[in-house]
Design a protein that fits this description.
Blueprint (H helix, E strand, L loop, with lengths): L8 E9 L8 E10 L3 H8 L6 H25 L7 E2 L3 E6 L4 E5 L2 H8 L3 E3 L3 H5 L9 H7 L5 E5 L2 E6 L5 E7 L1 H9 L10 H4 L5 H8 L14 H13 L5 H22 L4 E5 L6 H10 L4 E3 L3 H20 L7 H4 L9 E3 L10
Parallel strand pairs: 3-6, 7-10, 10-11
Antiparallel strand pairs: 1-2, 4-5, 6-12, 7-8, 8-9
């Protein structure tokens, strides 16, 4: 899993079994790691939407080879027996209104490097069916974390899923995408615990501008991409001359306010918060204060860090067992579908059970 915040590549080795009934799914996390991108790859991925067609195509293949090498090293390092790789890839373009979504990291190249069959391109079928192609994590929330009313992911973008019978999910607002951008302006990759933001003051005019962004008035299903952030929110950040601490404090308040609005209006009383933003103590404090009737749970570190990777492993498992892994109720597609392409059947290289 590689997210829009460019934190790195998350790897999770999971074991699933269900006896043919996905509602009685048993699972375990066997090993997990995050591999940081090199400075070269961080720069390359952060500007790829402006590159030429050749540069884009080459990055797709190069990143696939990198992912395959990372997978092989991970498997060897932890002495794992693996059946399949499920790869989300790295999103470059996401404009579902044009029936367009692209996640680079070529599956054939991954398979060639690690010698394992690969499931990839999870979003495109849903988008082709008129869906948002996002978020895809809610089916995992439903199957793996059903004890909570809702699951909140605080990654590059904050998204939520809720509902037992019919799962509803959507992107709420940018999260680490904005916070990390501001942190990089002061030489930090992120604001640890929200400590820098905690020293700042809310810039009320900026907060007012952020709250009025049109996206927040749209009904679900809806999703956000880097293009929207660059066009709608980043100019408000870049054209502001306040101290970084004040900017960070304002963005934290904006994120907490948007999430609390969703939580309060949907009678959500128990919320599981994961993703890098769940480690931002100020953000969790503000969310808890703005949604006082909801108990916000931040789980153990491996679930915080690897929940998305775990769920993409599940999406691969569902694809291989030919069961839907994209929900119409979440994305707005014509119907539930089985997303993902299968590449690189290398049966002589595959081990495990």
């Amino acid at each position: 899993m590689s997210g829009t915040s460019l934190d790195g590549v998350d790897l999770a080795c999971c074991h699933f079994s269900d006896g043919g009934d996905s509602k009685r799914l048993k699972w375990s996390l066997m090993a997990a790691e995050t591999i940081q991108y090199s400075d070269e790859w961080t720069q390359r991925l952060s500007t790829l939407e402006k590159a030429s067609a050749f540069e884009y195509a080459l990055a797709d293949v190069d990143l696939g080879h990198l992912y395959g090498q990372i997978v092989k090293a991970f498997v060897d390092r932890h002495n794992l027996k693996v059946d399949y790789v499920a790869s989300h890839g790295h999103t470059v373009f996401h404009q579902p209104h044009l029936k367009l979504t692209t996640q680079i990291g070529d599956g054939d190249s991954i398979a060639a490097e690690c010698g394992l069959p690969v499931v990839f391109n999870f979003r495109r079928m849903d988008v082709a069916l008129g869906g948002q192609g996002a978020p895809l994590v809610p089916i995992g929330d439903q199957l793996l974390f059903a004890e909570y009313d809702a699951c909140l992911n605080l990654g590059g973008i904050a998204n939520i899923s809720y509902g037992a019978d019919m799962r509803i999910a959507f992107d709420i607002c940018p999260c680490n995408m904005a916070l990390n951008l501001l942190s990089r302006k002061v030489g930090k990759s992120y604001d640890r615990d929200g400590d820098t933001a905690r020293t700042g003051k809310i810039i009320e005019p900026l907060l007012g501008q952020l709250e009025k962004l049109e996206y927040y008035t749209l009904p679900a299903p809806k999703s956000l991409g880097k293009e929207w952030f660059a066009a709608e929110m980043q100019p408000l950040i870049d054209n502001n001359e306040h101290d970084a601490s004040d900017m960070l404090r304002t963005i934290v308040e904006h994120i907490a306010t948007q999430i609390a609005t969703v939580v309060n209006s949907n009678n959500i009383h128990t919320l599981l918060a994961t993703g890098g933003g769940a480690k931002n103590k100020l953000l969790i404090e503000r969310l808890s204060a703005l949604a006082p009737d909801c108990k916000v749970t931040v789980p153990q570190a491996d679930i915080i860090d690897y929940k998305e990777a775990i769920i993409f492993a599940l999406l691969g498992y569902l694809r291989l067992t030919m069961r839907p892994n994209c929900l119409q109720s979440v994305t707005g597609a014509a119907y539930d579908c089985i997303g993902g392409n299968l590449s690189g059947i290398c049966h002589n290289k595959v081990g495990g059970s």
